[in-house]
Structures
1.
Amino acid sequence: MKRVFPILAVLSALLLGYAFYEAMWVAPMERTMGDVQRIFYYHVPSAWTAFLLFFINFLASLQFLVRAKASTLRTANWIVIGVGVLGAVAPFVPQVQTQLPEGLYPSSVSTTAVMMAALYFLIGKYFRGRSLDVLAVTTAEVGVVFCTVVLVTGPIWARPVWGIWWTWDIRLTTTLVLWLIYVSYLVLRRFSDSAQTPKLAAVLAIFGALDVPLVYFSIWFFRTQHPQPVIGGGGSIDPRMMHVLLINWLAFSCLAFLVCWARYRLEWLQREVEETQALESLLGDADTARAPAKIPYSKIASQSRSR
Amino acid sequence: MTEAKISQSTAIIVVEGLIKQFGRFAALRGVDAEFDSGKFYVIVGDNGAGKTTLLRGLAGLAHPTRGSISILGKSPREACRELGYMAHPSLLYDEMSGMENLRYFARLYGIFGDERCGEVIRSVGLDPELARPVGQYSQGMRQRMSLARAILHDPQILLLDEPFSNVDVHSAWEMAALLGGMRDAGKTIFVVTHQAAVLKDVADEFVWMQAGKIVNRTEEWSPGGLAALDSPADDSAEGAQ
Amino acid sequence: MSSRRSITLATLAKDIRLEWRSKDAINSMLFFSLLVVVIFSFSFDPNAEESRQIAGGLIWVAFLFAAVVALNQTWARELRNQVLDAYRVSPAPANALFVAKALGNFLLVTLLEALMAPLFIVFYNLRAVGPAWQLIPVALLGTWALVVNGTFFAAMSLRTRSREIMLPLLLFPISIPAVQSMVEATRVILTGDGSARFWIVLLLTYDVVFTTACLALFETVLQAE
């Protein structure tokens, strides 16, 4: 960690700088909107990053809850495999293919479904028990930050272009609801005194995840009744713009990864401190004849100690 | 519900390495103990010693941070039919009468009909016909009704937290005698109290707790408290009345 | 599962009896709702056409706030004298308690709606252009949507500081699709501008999804310290 982090940080900074340059100067000017449109290169990657982080939070919460019993774990694993297979195959079925929105290829839906299932199993393999909870907190917090960026850049973009600060369009509204749900998630974590806070928060994350498709559908239908401008526009993108967009997404993802890593370490160390203090109060008592037992430090803490 | 009588010498409650932390504060710091069936245990100690936490752990209301509790070979939650719990708050609805309260709690245990409720209320020395809401009872009456609720389903093990607090001396002695009678009938009883003197004649064992641990277990009550028990060479009978 | 059902019914009967004797929740809710209706009437003075457009939103927002008051009250009753501990140590399943509480809240809020709706009709001179009978499934499904999640989150809030504010903080974001469905359905029915069928189906879906989730996860919430 000690050596890799600064290297990655420098690389990310370079990447972000390069992405900024690309977005501001290299990318072609948009025909109708002008330079203001360049905010798109911050708005969209932030959104994708935020959604990815929230999705990881959902998977971590799900794993945390199902691991309580062996039977629930097995059931959940099978369900995820089923969903993955279904998602991989379904987009190629003709009836489903016609339902897909314009511009969305069946292969990308298929790949996404498989990757989502794979992510579930990866998280389950590398994170166990408490580390799942730490992962959940981390991704929720960093996700909320990126989500805030989306919600702030959206109106900034909309105002000069469409003349309105806000519109209840499907993407912006879903993002707002996600933001609200995860802010309430963080509030619950902060205000809950219970020893079972990780479980309660995980339950809330599941509820939030169940809610999002319903939000999407309700606004989708609402918008078919009351059409309004979609911030960000729909339809196809000039390939040169796509290129810049992807570079920015890469840069943002690296930044998100770094911030998450740092936050994860911080949370982990904080919990260790609390546990150590609690252990010390456990061991330190009037009986001085007994030497206090050695308190084992985790790998993370040992690395910090050995400078 | 098991019908077999447990032999007197078997330990029915086993606590191993029980640690309970609330954030940074450790209420229980490693409790190891075995408790036998059919005995009357009184848990004593200063405030903050962990007595209530231990009792709540036995009742299944407090989940151990580390360690385990086994009651009749099961977890407290699984053994809930064998447990009767009574705490300092009355655990009763103030706006309902005693009979109405018990009728409701009886349903939770799958007991229908009023006979059992009436019988239990009478056994604690109260009148089942009393229509007054529990909120208007005196403290002594309320504690007795709370005890009635705890024994409603005829549990093998009773867990009582401060049953005598704010209760007049007469009622306290009566309750102590009542509990002694239950112990004689084969129940295992745990009482956490600051007024252990009331129980000195009925109790089988006093469990002394300090700073989250059990520091001593004696058969006689020592009015001098833990200090009088400090040196192990002291004959505990010396401290007893 | 007759014992589960008997426990649910017993708990529901107990709650109704307690509420009848103390009238804690119903009084505060009634007065609060009346105040909300009156204040809204002062603030928005629409003509007939406008009122049909916005009444849905006004009514459901008022019911939402009144429901929050009720939800906090019904769990507060279990905290006095720590009675909830008595339930937790018993073998009674957590679900039975949840269903009983949710049903009790549902009855309370529905009663409130039945009392407040005429007031709204009077103050806003409402008359439905579309099929007015459809308002009944909307009201029932919508109320259940609010109540089922509200009961769940109110139980979750029991373990937090600032318990009373925690409930709306958790409930409102999750309820957004339900509230939108209710508001839109009401608007569509009152103005006669389209069909409320989609919204009713969405409400039904919402109810099924979240009732299942609540029933599956309530045990965790109840046994949390």
2.
Amino acid sequence: MHPESNRFNRALVLRSWLKKVTLLLLLSTPVMAVEDVVSFSDESLRPRYQQLLEELRCPKCQNQNLSDSNSPISDDLRREIHRLLEEGGSDHEIKEYLKSRYSEFILYRPEVNSATWFLWGAPVALLVLGLLILFYFSRRGRQRLEASPGVKAPNSAEQQRLAALLGNQSSTNENLGANSSDTINLESKETNQ
Amino acid sequence: MNRLTLFIPLILCVALGSFLYSSLGKDPQELPSALIGEPFPAFSLPALSDPQRQVGTADFEGQVVLVNVWATWCFACRIEHVWLNDLAEKGVKIIGLNYKDDRDMALEWLKTRGNPYQFSIFDSRGSLGIDLGVYGAPETYLVDANGIIRHRRVGVVDDRVWNNEFRDLYQQLVGNDAP
């Protein structure tokens, strides 16, 4: 191959790569997460710490968990959780500790009790209800299909008549009265069959 | 029966509508308090005016007090402060909880704006704040003579809030000579 065209090809390849990278950068959304640099005496505490931050809600900002939020209160609570973990508190104890202060609101996964049974139960109840409705209608549909003698396709005479009726309807408006009576006749005929 | 089932959508619609309507006036920022009916958490923190002096629940034991969370960085506290001065003049005992603040700035604030507090607790790291479930300032707690938290208000207390939420309860707790 000619060296000149080779260089040209390489430039093309480079350009297409640059385009791809730019597109990728434009499409990617930045991940917003606030994470302090925390150190643990025992590294096995870190995943539990992360897990707790995911599951606990920032009391001030409401729609963020403690790991998302950078409000001062979340900062304090992260420090508090870190302290409790280092002191050997279990996940349950830490959640109870925060619940007793900030109410159940702070748990993103609230326990099932008198106030939250509906929250937990509603999806299951709705699913069961939906399945029952689906079952009911599918059974009714099948029964009806079995009970009816079957819908016959219109024969050629009927088809001609139908075409004539439809043709009349679209051409003039004066025959509307006659048309509608024809339609009624057709319907009554069908039900007779 | 079949005709009645036609009303199901209407009934659902009315039910949902009335539920949503009843929720309209509620403040979604307001958290249910976990501490109503619970004793005020024990603490030992320095007083704002004197770093050497430690204060605790014993300092307001046997009295009906308001505990007011405030800070110089809190804008709404400026508005509330004027009102608290008036309330203190009427004889209501108020304890300040200076929350995550700078001591010098807080003392300066009390000097220029007046001091409605019996004393202020200096909670620079917010540890008592966490025990109380504080998530912003101002907040006000009504504590009875047995040290039990009876009411909590998140946000500014003014005449309307006092009359609606605090006055009756306060009068009941101290006797009838209340504002």
